[in-house]
Amino acid sequence: VYGALHGRGTALVRQLWDGLEAIEAVKLYGPPPGNPRTPTVAFTVRGVRPEDVAARLADRGVFVSHGDFYARTVVERLGLADSGLVRAGCGIYTTAGEVSRLIAGIQDITGA
């Protein structure tokens, strides 16, 4: 069971990473899929504050978090202390359709 859940989570993170990576205005942080990682993706959208990205996605029924996630030192070293990051996670309840909606929301925000 755990192997199946891990495989499903890995596929969702890959879908999310690849979809966001294809959008020029998105910068991803952390190790890409295929490396040891949690099923969350941290990113920024050029020219849009993370809190605004989160609010605009929420308007579409897609919920992400924003800020420093108690990793203030890392966020400061990334030069993002004033605004933070957007973080999207893929839990056991996340569907591929929800990941697609998040990617489409970011495409709309960026005009991609």
Report on this structure.
The protein is α+β, with helices and mostly antiparallel strands. It is built from four helices and four strands; from the N terminus they run H-E-E-H-E-H-E-H. A four-stranded antiparallel β-sheet has the order 1-2-4-3, with helices on one face. Helix 1 (2-21) packs parallel to helix 4. 22% of the residues are buried. The model has no long low-confidence stretch (mean pLDDT 92).
Helices, strands, pairings?
Layout: H1 2-21, E1 26-29, E2 40-45, H2 50-58, E3 65-67, H3 72-77, E4 85-89, H4 96-110
Antiparallel strand pairs: 1-2, 2-4, 3-4
Helix pairs in contact: 1-4
Q: Quick recap of the structure?
A:
With about 110 residues, the chain is of the alpha+beta class. It has helices at about 1-20, 50-60, 70-75, 95-110; strands at about 25-30, 40-45, 65, 85-90.
